[in-house]
Structure formats: C-alpha cells, structure tokens
Amino acid sequence: MRIRYYALELMPKDVMLLCSDGLHGVVANELIEETLSNPAASLEEKCRTLISAADDAGSPDNVTVVLLQIANSSH
After folding, report:
1. Do the beta carbons of residue 69 and residue 12 sit within 8 Å?
2. Per the domain annotation, does 8 fall within a domain?
3. pLDDT at position 1, please?
4. Which residues pair with 65 in a beta bridge?
5. 3-class DSSP state of 69
6. What angle do CA 55, 48, 6 make, to 5 degrees?
7. Does residue 2 form part of some domain?
C-alpha cells in the first residue's frame, strides 16, 4: 500500500471535502462545487445533499462525505 499526502494552504472559511468513491466519480464535479459554494446551507445540509445526489445517481458503493471548514484566525 502506498500512502499519498499533500500540503495545502487553507484560508479562513475554506471548505475541504473528504469522500469515498461512492461520491467521487458518481456525482458531477459541477454539482459538488455548486453544493459546496451554497452560502445558505450548513455543512450538514451540504453533506446530506451530496449523499442524496450520489444515491440518486445510483452509486455502486457506500457513500461517505466529510466536510471541514477552516475557522477564522483568532489573531
């Protein structure tokens, strides 16, 4: 097994999506981007929307979605 890792510079309010292949490759990137950039939806609502979209698309595998939002700096 090979472990891959990346360093990213994240800014306050950035959202990071961690997901299984039940979402990736099943739901169009445009729909994922649209869902994540909806300012009116909470992180939980965005997760539920993405999981529903994968289910509706007939995902052949389990669907796992985790969203992390970078907090504002306290400095």
Report:
1. no
2. no
3. 87
4. 19
5. strand
6. 95
7. no
**Contact status, residue 22 vs residue 57, Cβ threshold 8 Å:** no
Q: What is the reported pLDDT for 74?
A: 63
Per-residue pLDDT of the chain (75 residues; tens, 9 = 90+): 898 898 999 999 899 999 999 999 999 999 999 999 999 999 999 999 999 999 999 999 899 999 999 988 665
How far apart (Å, rounded) are the C-alpha atoms in residues 39 and 41?
Answer: 6
Residue 46, token pair as written in the block? 């965005």
- Domain ranges, residue 39: 15-69
Total residues found in the chain within this entry:
75
Tokens of 68: 């992390």
